Amino acid sequence: MKTTLKTIAAALIMVTSLSSFASEKANPLKNVESSMVIGSYMEAVTVGSIDLNKFLFADDFEYRNVNNNDRAGKKEYIKYLKANKSNKYDCKSSYEILSQDGKVCVAKATMAFDNFTRVDYITLNQGKDGWRVSKVETTYP
């Protein structure tokens, strides 16, 4: 009887400790369409919503501003977005998917301000964790 109780107690301890390791948040963007990922990117940029940034960008993410040749990797870009958390741009924004072929998607996001327009060309790649933003090139035409 003591052996059975010890076995049951040990099994319960193992199950609860293993489930605590598995409690890391699941990727809410894993099984969504590319348009949902682009929409999440637009929310991060235009209204400062940073909740999904951890799942939004690929590990090899690259940002480039074509006009001044600024570049940033994933860490720097997420840091920039965090610094602008909850800042809402006063602009009209829209996006369109230019091409989607297999596991690659290219979209154009436009943010029209009063005095200028910002255009982001967004490249997404689909992998085992779903669609992720791998590259953004910004221009001000």
What does this molecule look like?
Residues 1-22 form the signal peptide. Keywords: Signal. It holds the Pfam family Lumazine_bd_2. This is Putative lumazine-binding. The protein is an alpha+beta fold. It has one domain (29-139): Nuclear Transport Factor 2, Chain: A (Roll). It contains four helices and six strands; from the N terminus they run αααββαββββ. The radius of gyration is 21 Å and the shape is globular. The relative contact order is 0.19.
Low-confidence stretches: 1-12, 15-23
Distance between the termini: 78 Å
What is the arithmetic mean of pLDDT?
85
Helix content bin: 25-40%
Percentage of β-strand residues? 35-45%
Rg of Cα set: 21 Å
Q: Report the order of strands and helices.
A: HHHEEHEEEE
Q: Assign the CATH architecture.
A: Roll
CATH fold name, please? Nuclear Transport Factor 2, Chain: A
Query: What is the helix tally?
Result: 4
Overall spatial form: globular
The biggest sheet amounts to: 6 strands, mixed
Structural class: alpha+beta
When the domains are counted, the total is 1
Number of strands: 6
Assigned CATH class? Alpha Beta
How would you write the strand order of the largest sheet? 2-1-6-5-4-3
Keywords: Signal
Pfam families: Lumazine_bd_2
Signal peptide: 1-22
Protein name: Putative lumazine-binding
